[in-house]
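Suppose a colleague, Dr. K., hands you the sequence of a protein chain of 190 amino acids and asks what its three-dimensional shape might be. Before reaching for any lab equipment, you can write down a predicted structure in token form. Begin with the sequence itself:
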Amino acid sequence: MLKTIIASCAIVALASAAQAQTVDATTMDHSKMDHATHMKMMAEAQRQAEVSGRGKDVMPFNLAATTHIFTKTAKGGAQQVVAKKSTDKEQVRQARAHLQEIREQFLKGDFSGPSHIHGQDMPGLADLKAAKPGQIAIDYKDVTGGGQLIYKTQDASLVAALHKWFDAQLADHGKDAMEGHTSHGVPAKQ
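The predicted structure, expressed as tokens, is then:
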């Protein structure tokens, strides 16, 4: 009976993950996983599916057609959203417009978008919300295939909060996100 329940839960979770395109069941080798690893992967897949669903409420672009790139630096970091096909003009336009909009919100201390998508207890978010105006500089620029926000602060605790926030987004967006590369603290060009 317990095996049937566990198998049923696994099937439901796999179906949800496959529907959200967060897990490729054909490449997952369950025979080499212990139970704890398997359950962790299933929980991550479920979380990513939930985040993807809520993301549609906040992000105008297609999450599966774009990639979030998070690059940590010594003074903060860079967040990019780029279309997987740089010729997809609509995704590029929507990503750029979204980043410009959330830049204005973030500068006012309004992190309601990430709160809605990732939850109120998202790592780093409380510290970012508590930052005083001007403590974090956020600049926008167009990049090939999308846009970029560059976060800079002199406050080490806010740098740490930004890095935790980036890590949480990397985990929550799964295959639709990636860590960027740095060279001496300067975001890599995409």
